[in-house]
Amino acid sequence: MPTDTALGPLLIAHARHAIAQGLGLDSEVPPDAPALHEQGAVFVTLTQDDRLRGCIGSLVAYRPLGEDVRANAFAAAFRDPRFAPLTAHEWAGTDLEVSLIGPTEWRVCASEAEAIAWLRPGVDGVILEHAGLRATFLPQVWSSLPTSALFLYELRRKAGMRGDRWPADMRVGRYQVEKYHGA
């Protein structure tokens, strides 16, 4: 995962440019940098008045970082199935956050208590996988679901699992992010 002090503003600039292009707006092409050609994974989150407006991303690096941020920014704005496509009218009031995803560490947790003991609230992004179902919450979600039990309950629901049941062979992944914010 490439990191340096200039990377955050660069990722934000590339995300903003991809969305502006999708809206048909003029936008200056952001600069290139070697870090954008290294493999990387990001989530792009759009908010309006502190409310989610779109969030799409990659958990695993499988393409160049610049391509990943542009594709996920476009998808968060125009392809998140939870929202109508972003409009040019909304764009001015939309905040953008790019989360650079670190490597995932996996563990099978036989119980919710085991998962709670392993996870670090406010630090870890979490992935749950079981029986072909999968979902993730970025570390930022801890602020709105502050207890570990509630966090894991809502994550199971997001994955389409029963919220009140913990399978003995649940795979749990944890990862950290470097997040960058740009209005």
Automatic annotation (TrEMBL):
Transmembrane segments: none annotated. Residues 6-183 form the AMMECR1 domain. Pfam families: AMMECR1. It comes from the Bacteria. Coiled coil: none annotated. PROSITE patterns: AMMECR1. This is AMMECR1 domain-containing protein. It comes from Niveibacterium umoris.
